[in-house]
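Team,

Forwarding the record for the chain on the shared tracking sheet. I've put the sequence and predicted structure together so nobody has to dig through attachments.
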Amino acid sequence: MIGKIENKVKVKELRSIDPNKPASTIARQIGISRERVRQILIELNLPTKFQTPTLCSKCGKKLKWGKKPGGPLFCKTCRSENYHNKHTTKLICPYCNRQFTRENSYIKRSLKLGQKFFCSYSCRSFSVWRELKKNNGWN
């Protein structure tokens, strides 16, 4: 009986020192089974499982969801930036010479169709009119 009380005290003490310590580590330190540690934690109304917080791979911010298999995990902001950097290409408008970005899928499709890339619809329109004037001899 005294051994059981001592075990409960030791489990409570070890859990209070490090709340994220796994039951298996506590069991090894005390010399009892992991299942017994789990039972003691339930008797003491202490949580039996702890998830270590998952942090953003880029900024280190704590994520609201757990780690999923398959590579780095990003917060909403970093995921958006990472996607943007990974799936876009910087281009220069042939009409106004401004730098702009377009998604790689759009560039691939436009290249198949033989289209030029413009920063805006107005630059595209001005360029088309310039070509029409040049080709048809309009002033």
